[in-house]
Amino acid sequence: MKELILKLFEIGALKFGQFKLKSGMISPVYVDLRVIISYPKLLAEVSELLWAASSKAEYSTVCGVPYTALPMATCISVSHSIPMLIRRKEAKDYGTKKMVEGYYEENSKCLIVEDVVTTGSSVLETAELLRKHKIVTSDAVVLLDRQQGGKEKLAEKGISLRSVLTLVEVVENLCEMNKIEKTVVDEVKQFVASNNKSLEKNESEKSGFPFKQKETAASSRIYGGVRCDRGGYRKRAVLSKHLVTRKLFEIMESKQTNLCLSADVVSSADLLDLADTLGPLVCAVKTHIDILDDFSPKVVDQLVEIANKHNFLIFEDRKFADIGNTVKSQYAGGAYKISDWSDITNAHSLPGSGIIEGLKAASGGRKDRACLLIAEMSTKNNLANDVYKEATVKMAEEHGDFVIGFICTSKVSKNPQHVHFTPGVKLKPGKDAMGQQYLTPDEVIKNRGCDVIIVGRGITDSANRLQEATAFRNAGWAAYVQRVSS
Ligand code: S5P
Questions:
Q1: Which of 44, 125, 231, 284 gives 313 a disulfide partner, CB atoms 3.0 to 4.6 angstroms apart?
Q2: Which of 317, 406, 455 has most ligand 1 atoms within 8 Å of its beta carbon, as the pocket-test mutant?
């Protein structure tokens, strides 16, 4: 089960933080198993486990609770030659007006399949409908039981619920694998123990996904300082006035990653493939859009779609360095129209504050656009000395409505609203042939106090990019956890 739990965590099906459910309840965990359908192997595996969990039940048909469990029920049906029924959510307004599709005999037994159970109300709704059609429903299987009274409630109604996973088992395993902190486990356990039956599944997991729409991300979270983590990303999300900073910290916290992929590849297909494959592991994807051999506006549209799907920010590493009037056109115009699609961009502070004015003007006052100033560089013999660095930080302070932090190799600002992005990161220290110098995630995050590791060739040159990105993500996150807990 460990592997399954890890996979669910990695694809973002389980998120930890403070989530306000529609019912008003604050949950320390958010479960979105819908994303499983994007991973066919996992879908098949999960369906087999559901089928195995039903081994003691007797049934001649299966019926998935709409919608996430529909494909799971379909997989069980096809793999084990068990006829399937579909429960409609609304009756058709034409034709037969049937609420249950598929062939069944009166008094035949049907197994209900569900992805997640909280209070059990969705399973019960399906069971009641099937019962109205004289179909016997005494058994249900679920992938994840949130342990909030659903099993008991269903038992009272004559339905025996078997689960593949329980929430407590999930968090305990994730903690053992160093994916979440012990405090999160305790919070979830406390939440489960409070056994709040007022949580309605239809009101929570099934009806909204806080991070799906970029615009709704901020509004769906709690900013009351409900939980602080001693200067950690969550607390800083609460403190942050800039929408992009807040979003970034929230993403980092919910996906438990401080990895920014530097997708320095030259083909659009490679860029999109990287973003889609590694999207679940990163908080941001950094592009050099002008190195694509085959750039077309479609690429950035697709990249934005992928960013929405996997909940990461896009950072075009344009390193603007000209006068305000010129960068204005470079940012919003030309072939790339960067301000249309990139959440974050960066600029040298060398020209003075005019460059920020120009970029800000080009962004048209959009609150979801932000800039990092280059305070330090990762290359040997670079010219950014302490005076330059301090002047850059001052400039950032003066333009907090657009500048959210720095490209740097150390923590240059004490302002918790400033984000520190550090390039030149590999799992082992070293350098390349052209002056690039590498630090480890541990050094960058734990010792130097930076926030985000930017990793390019450490991942893109690897034969197994997914495995390598996972290693960077784990190393970066472990370093952060150690930093905030020490
Ligand atoms: O000082 C810097 C600033 C940046 S943004 N040093 C850097 O290396 N970068 C960028 O980070 C660089 O342009 C490249 O895209 C990435 C590092 O790539 P890597 O392959 O060396 O990890």
A1: 284
A2: 317
Distance CA 405, CA 413 (A): 8
Write out the CATH class of domain 2-174.
alpha beta
Q: Is cis: bond before 67, omega within 30 of 0?
A: yes
Cβ(377) – ligand 1 distance below 6 Å: yes
- CA-nearest residue for atom 6, ligand 1, is 378
The residue extents of the domains of the chain are 2-174, 233-485
3-state secondary structure of 49: helix
Q: Of the residues 271, 289, 410, 454, which should be mutated to test ligand 1's pocket, given the most ligand atoms within 8 Å of the CB?
A: 454
Q: Which atom of ligand 1 is nearest to the CA of 425?
A: 22
- Active-site pick, 276, 322, 368, 442: 322
pLDDT value of residue 408:
98
Give 146-161 pLDDT, tens digit per residue. 998 899 899 999 999 9
Annotated active-site residue 319? The verdict is yes
SS3 at position 463: coil
Q: Considering the chain, what is the average pLDDT of its residues?
A: 89
> DSSP per residue over 213-273, as a string?
SHHHHGGGB--S--S--TT-HHHHHHH--SHHHHHHHHHHHHHT--EEEE---S-HHHHHH
Q: How far apart are CA 291 and CA 474, in angstroms?
A: 29
Ligand 1 pocket residue status of 437, Cβ below 6 Å = no
CATH code reported for the domain at 233-485: 3.20.20.70
Q: Would you say the CB of residue 317 lies under 6 angstroms from ligand 1? A: yes
* Any ligand 1 atom below 6 A from CB of 424: yes
Q: Is the pTM of this model over 0.70?
A: no
Task: Give pLDDT tens digits for 412-456.
Answer: 999 999 999 999 999 999 999 999 999 999 999 999 999 999 999
Indicate if ligand 1 lies below 6 Å from the C-beta of 264.
Answer: yes
To the query of whether residue 411 is one of the catalytic residues in this protein, the response is no
Give every CB contact of residue 416 below 8 A, 6+ residues apart in sequence: 231, 235, 236, 239, 240
Q: 378, 382, 421, 434: which to mutate for ligand 1, most atoms within 8 A of CB?
A: 378
**Equal fold, 2-174 vs 233-485:** no
Question: Which tokens belong to 164?
Answer: 């593949």
pLDDT confidence of residue 77: 96
Per DSSP bridges, beta strands 259-262 and 160-166 are: unpaired
